[in-house]
């Protein structure tokens, strides 16, 4: 996949991984033409990503890769944050 962030754009970093906690992200997919993709990649024109060409929005944990559901387990068992105190036990 290609990131279309340009030089002047910034992104929000993910919060630090904490043991047992999910880090949820929403990922939107859009249907675009070859021409729009080319122009966005070469920065000729920004891609218009709006409701008219929105295809899907998925929400899930970036660490354990489980989709969000109202009854999903609360504990995220994906590795990540390690408490140094746990290494001494």
Structure notes:
- The protein has 89 residues and is an alpha+beta fold.
- The chain has a domain at 20-68.
- 13% of the residues lie in helices and 17% in strands.
- It has helices at residues 34-41, 84-87, and strands at residues 24-30, 54-61.
- A two-stranded antiparallel ribbon has the order 1-2.
- The longest helix has 8 residues, at 34-41.
- The chain is elongated.
- It starts with 23 loop residues before the first strand and ends with a helix.
- The relative contact order is 0.23.
- The model has no long low-confidence stretch (mean pLDDT 79).
Radius of gyration: 18 Å
**Number of helix segments?**
2
Q: Which parts are unreliable, with pLDDT below 50 for 5 consecutive residues or more? A: none
The spatial strand order of the largest sheet comes to 1-2
- Helix percentage range: 10-25%
């Amino acid at each position: 996949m290609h990131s279309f962030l340009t030089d002047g754009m910034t992104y929000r970093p993910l919060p630090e991984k904490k043991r047992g906690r999910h880090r949820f992200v929403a990922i939107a997919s859009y249907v675009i033409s070859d021409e729009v993709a080319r122009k966005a990649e070469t920065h000729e024109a920004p891609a218009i990503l709006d409701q008219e060409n929105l295809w899907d929005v998925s929400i899930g944990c970036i660490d354990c890769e489980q989709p969000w559901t109202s009854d999903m387990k609360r504990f995220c068992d994906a590795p990540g944050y390690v408490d140094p105190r746990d290494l001494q036990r």
